[in-house]
Specification:
mainly beta; 9-stranded antiparallel beta sheet; AttH-like fold; 0% helix
């Protein structure tokens, strides 16, 4: 099959970075390109999130939209063969549209299982670029990812069981990531000698009046960070201030691998102390967007077009079950900078803890505190 056979709409845009059609994205079958969004009400009683992923070498595009309200998390999933057309960012009833690059994006969900949405995210500031994520197992690349992140204000509405829920004024976060990470079917031959899985991840995008804080850490089994960053962003000017020596103090809830409390401590470049404390209130299961979902995982080949839905009662979720390890906690937050009065905010604390992590006392694959 010649290169002419994979020319797509993207090839008419000046986006090429090598002398090949846009359909070719290097040589790693795990290359992906993804949108992620979330939004929540000021009291945390309504939360929604969306994701759309493109997997060029698997020729698959999938998407999901999930709403957490009144003790129930409801999700719509869609997957299709994309026929190499990466620019057509819609999958069944779910679509993502870039209205103004780096500033305004639209997410639409046609009515599916009594759930629909038409919402627009507008950036509170220009996106930040996080440090490149590179992680290897021996000589094999597990992750090689670039990600940009932005806190946003929403407008539009959701429809849930015939009830219209206003999204206007809700705050949240969006990110765009692309690169290499495990997707689709598992590798049938892992590197030798076999190594037990280990991944420790915390991500805290927080929004306050006029300010945003973005902090994350990836750590090995000893608690040594292999990717850690924290940034303070002024909404009005877009000024980014990297925070020095960021550290997370984490307390796990007994019987889980979930945070009962978390504090971020750092300093501004001039030595001023900064502390952000977060209190988890509600838990959003990332399986509702396909992350680690047993049948709706990212990049699975489900045929030409597959659309499905599910409803999960939050009270029935077992926090110790491995499938429920990846979560976003809806959090209230408090920010203290030097001697200024503390300011209140909201955000999420995303968590994924697999395998041992000595600082938190975790020793096995999925043992609990």
């Amino acid at each position: 099959m010649g290169a002419w056979a994979v020319l797509t709409a993207g090839d008419d845009y000046p986006l090429h970075q090598r002398s090949e059609p846009i359909a070719f994205a290097g040589t790693d079958r795990n290359f992906y390109d993804r949108y992620f969004f979330n939004g929540q009400s000021h009291d945390g009683r309504l939360f929604f999130a969306a994701a759309l992923g493109v997997y060029p070498h698997l020729n698959i595009m999938d998407a999901a939209f999930s709403v957490l309200a009144n003790g129930t998390q409801r999700s719509v999933f869609a997957s299709r063969v994309m026929h190499h057309e990466r620019m057509a960012t819609s999958v069944g009833p779910i679509a993502v549209e870039v209205l103004e690059p780096l500033r305004r994006l639209r997410v639409r969900v046609e009515m599916t299982d009594a759930l629909a949405a038409d919402v627009i995210a507008t950036g509170l500031h220009p996106p930040i670029e996080e440090p490149r994520f590179v992680r290897r197992i021996g000589a094999r690349t597990l992750m090689d990812v670039t990600r940009m992140t932005q806190n946003v204000r929403w407008e539009g509405s959701l429809s849930l069981d015939g009830m219209v829920l206003e999204a206007s004024g809700l705050l949240g976060t969006r990110d765009r990531s692309w690169g290499v990470r495990p997707i689709g079917a598992a590798d049938p031959q892992p590197p030798a000698p076999p190594a037990p899985p280990q991944f420790f991840w915390l991500w805290a995008p927080l929004v306050f009046d006029g300010l945003s804080v973005f902090a994350h850490t990836n750590e090995d089994a000893e608690g040594r960070p292999w990717n850690r960053s924290a940034v303070l962003v002024e909404h009005a000017t877009g000024l980014e201030t990297p925070l020095c020596d960021p550290r997370f103090a984490l307390a796990l809830a007994p019987g889980t691998r979930r945070a009962a409390a978390c504090t971020l401590s750092a300093t501004l470049p001039d030595g001023t102390a900064l502390e952000a404390t977060v209190v988890p209130e509600t838990w959003f299961q990332m399986t509702g967007l396909g992350y680690g979902h047993p049948t709706r995982g990212h990049g699975f080949n489900l045929g030409e077009l597959s659309v499905g839905s599910e409803r999960v009662e939050t009270a029935s979720v077992d926090p110790a079950a491995p499938v429920n390890a990846h979560v976003q906690a809806l959090v209230s937050a408090e920010l203290r900078v030097g001697r200024r009065p503390p300011v209140a905010g909201r955000g999420v604390l995303e968590q994924l803890m697999i395998g041992p992590h000595r600082p938190t006392g975790l020793v096995g694959l999925f043992d609990v505190a």
